[in-house]
Amino acid sequence: MPQPHRPTRPARPTQRAQRAGGPARNRKGAGRPADKPRWGVRIAAGLSVVVLGSGALGHAVMTGLDTGIQRVDPFKDMKNRPQAGHGVNFLLVGTDGREKITKDEKREYRLGGAPCHCTDTVMLVHLSADRSRASVVSLPRDSYVELPAHLDEADGEQHGSHPVKLNAAYAEGGPNLTVRTVENMTRVKIDHYLEVDFTSFMKTVDAMGGVDICTAKTMHDPNTGLDLLPGTHRLSGGQALQYVRSRHVDGGSDLGRMQRQQRFIAALIRQATQGGVLLNPVKFKEVSSTLLGSVRADKGFGSEQMLALGQAMRDFTPSSSEFASVPVGNPSFPVKGIGSTVKWDEAKAAKLFEALREDRPLAPAPVPGRPVRKQPAVPVDVAPSQVRVQVENGTRIDGLGTRVDSALRATGFDTTGAPGTGASRQVKRTLITYDPRWDRSARTVSTALPGSEMRAVPGQGRTVVVIAGADYRKVVEVRAEDPYQGEFGVVTGDQVVCGSK
Predict the structure, then answer these.
(1) Are 257 and 244 contacting, i.e. CB atoms less than 8 angstroms apart?
(2) What's the whole-number mean pLDDT along residues 205-216?
(3) Which of 20, 94, 148, 178 lies most in the core, judged by the most C-beta atoms within 10 Å?
């Protein structure tokens, strides 16, 4: 098995000098060596590393931070837990708590709605045993789950196992039931629990001085107030919250939102590792104090773990982090009394979580000499991997539906793999029906099927339906700004942060 790649630590003094405006100038005459100021930078950086890296001074910097942490006991009375693997696993939960947000912030960032007291975001974060890699797996909030038997926090009654969406686990049983549910589904043992609400998220981002986000197109969501033009933006805490919450800026809906959240975390890691946060004791304490003072965490996570995490990340680069979402089998699985849920692809999901348990990279290194697949030629707005497609055969040509489904899947579309028979068997021109809310996804499918006809069907839902006609010849390969590749749709941080190629 190939060993995880440990990125070479960049020469920090050189990078810091470049960020300061290039080579240092001789300000006191030609007799002084031109590069002398660089030694000052090196000494300062070295002292900062010593402060954070040495036990006594490091603990002195972090003294007193534990007192502000709100404690929860997510592991109380838990039995039959998965076996511990290698590395450390965090369950990062984002809730919609907004009790401490000011009236002005609620108005500016569109946060006036009533909270659901459920999880808005659920991520499984794995830090490798050698501390060279962080793997982040997003769990769709609408995932179909079977809750274990539990005591309902709302009504105080004992409930048996029953199906819900994943975000309802928190509403019924808080952190404890959320951890139990995730462990049951993934068989990954959770070591630490971190819960972030809207307020703590905004405060932490502001303490870091904001985070740089790049967007290739206009992003506008009237529900959250997000309004970004193409380019690079330094987002404040409130703006960052709009960015990670928005669900109506692309055809991917929740999938697109999860990928934006992953892009944001990649940018956050870059800001921490290359923006001086980890090398500046005062800044590191400020950020740590803000985070620890505004999150809820298990009693085993505190200033010592925060310091160890900071030390582990000192050698991180954006490529040290990798991101994936749980493979989905059915993105619109109906459940009576619950509505449409997201059903995981059980076989692929099992392989993904096995990799986490065994401390393996989710995206194996490329095999030397293996040809890289050529990128498709026709650009589209929405990546085919984000478009769910149902194919129907609208002709009497045997096997046409299967051919079209296979060709679309080979091009990257998320097809159902179960083509059906259309209501009419006399379709001459291939027809694409779609819900107007997912019109950009439909245009991606139309680009892949030149000459096809598009027809809006309000209420059809996320899935785009292709009724193959007698005119079908082939599927044209399309591409979008979508670096998510591989069996688990993995992307590394350097592929999604500003300045990546």
Answers:
(1) yes
(2) 87
(3) 178
